[in-house]
Amino acid sequence: MRYIYVLILSMMFFSCRHEYASNTDFCLSDTSVKELIKMTSQANDTAVCTKKEPLKIDTVADATAKFIAGIPNGYFKNQQNKTWYKAHQNSVKTSWNKYTKNNIQRISAWRDKNKISETKNIKTVFYPFSGPDFLYANTFFPNYKNYIMFGLENPGKLPNLKSIDNETLNNYLQNIRFSLRYINKVGYFTTNQMKRDFADKNLDGTIHLLLFYLAKTGYEICSAKNIYLDKKGNFFLYQNDKQAGENIKGLKIDFKTKSGDQTQTLYYFRINTSNAGLTAKPGFIEFLNKFGNVVSYVKSGSYLLHHDEFSIIRYFMLQKSEKILQDDSGISYKKLLEYFDVELYGKYSKNISDFDYLYQEDLHKAVTEQNKILNFKLGYNKWNNETILMYARKKPGKEIVLKEHNKIIPSTPESNIEKTQEIIFKIQLKSTGVKLQNPQKYFKGLPDISFYYENGYYKYTSGKETKYENATLIKEKARKLGFEGVFTVAFLNGKKINVVEAVKLSGK
Q: How far apart are the C-alpha atoms of 290 and 268, rounded to whole Å?
């Protein structure tokens, strides 16, 4: 009998050590192990002792994270002796110390005082529209088992920094520092900024900054893998984009504290979470549902959760979140009050100009009455020298039945592109998940503003030129007005066609 139980224990021990391609790994709980040990002891009057092996560290991934973060390690010994790397270390150290003093330490003290991160039996932090901002998720909610983040930025791949020459490696580290400029100043990333920063073949996605933050916050990397989700929400490892196909691509990074004996996991996915995007990619919601209830955090989320085009992900948050910590760009204060008890901290008097049409007068009145001061600032309204945080806890027994959830499968919005038999050239200016309230004001100074809807995005254009050269003049004007990344598109009978083919067909 003793040998049977020992065999069972051995089999389960080694199966738990194997990393499967799905997130539904099965391992015995501590209670089950204790019961087996107890049964073995009773059967043979002999105690079975187990010794927990230390968790393994991925040498390359961990050393890469430390190297990016300016932390010395033996793996990159030769590179660390270079003058340019010492300059990187000094620059990172200076900005990090200044940043920590100004924000992170104050946030941590506020979090502990108000018991923000305390929950019972909740293991997962959900951070929509996060980009690579692990820093704030971990600061407000440390020590959670799982962190699920997503954005429109590419995941990227673990870089092989030893294969890069010194000049290119120096440029890579400079780009890392440059990509942190915005979050260091105001506490958030912007999609357009990240799109430009991640255009470099070496700095190709969020993994670089995620590793930076993990190393700087004292964690060690156990593994860093590229994954994709199938339609049922199961994840699989992949080595190249061809293997992943059109599935949702992401990252799975396992990490631990230096003295820890348990791993934590960070998931990041590139996905458009508009209703149209989630309807086309149902695996993401299926994946989220595997984690049960969560705590949610929203910061500088472009007010997307205010819009009906994002009612699916909003419904998920309201249904699954035991707690929500957010600024004014998350779920509207009015909607939040229906299902949560909400405490307000900070100050709120206006929105930044891009989102002034979404100003919440009821929130301004309520936060003024509560008068709870914050001694730190972050997010959009740092530009206005203020910050608002809503700390929401679900009302006991409150059933969430949302009217808008009955109509979450959207019809395709009609574009207002001219339907003509003549080829029309336009300049695409912006792609956004929500319809702009006043596009003429937003694109002031540019002619003939219109939009078309494609793959879950409203895509705004300027011009209606029959000659390619005339459209180019509009493109130059748009760039002078500060619209970066603009390009030419062509339409025939209201439908987009290939620009090269359009030029050939038009003969102009």
A: 16
Q: Which pLDDT does position 122 carry in this prediction?
A: 94
Quickly list H helices, 223-360.
241-244, 275-280, 283-289, 311-320, 333-337
CA–CA gap between residue 289 and residue 294 (Å, rounded) = 10
Nearest to 505 by CA among 473, 474, 467: 467
Pairwise CA distance, residues 368 & 349, whole Å: 9
- CA-based nearest residue to 418, from 448, 396, 442, 374: 448
Domain hosting residue 14, numbered range: 2-44
Res 37: pLDDT: 33
Q: With residue 210 as reference, give the H or E element that holds it.
A: helix 207-216
Number of structural domains, the chain?
3
Burial of 9 (0-12, 13-18, 19+ CB in 10 A): middle
Tell me what pLDDT residue 281 has. 92
Determine which of 210-219, 275-284, 323-332, 398-407 has the lowest per-residue pLDDT on average.
Answer: 398-407
**Listed residues 378, 406, 434: the one ending a domain:** 406
Higher-confidence residue of 507 and 306: namely 306
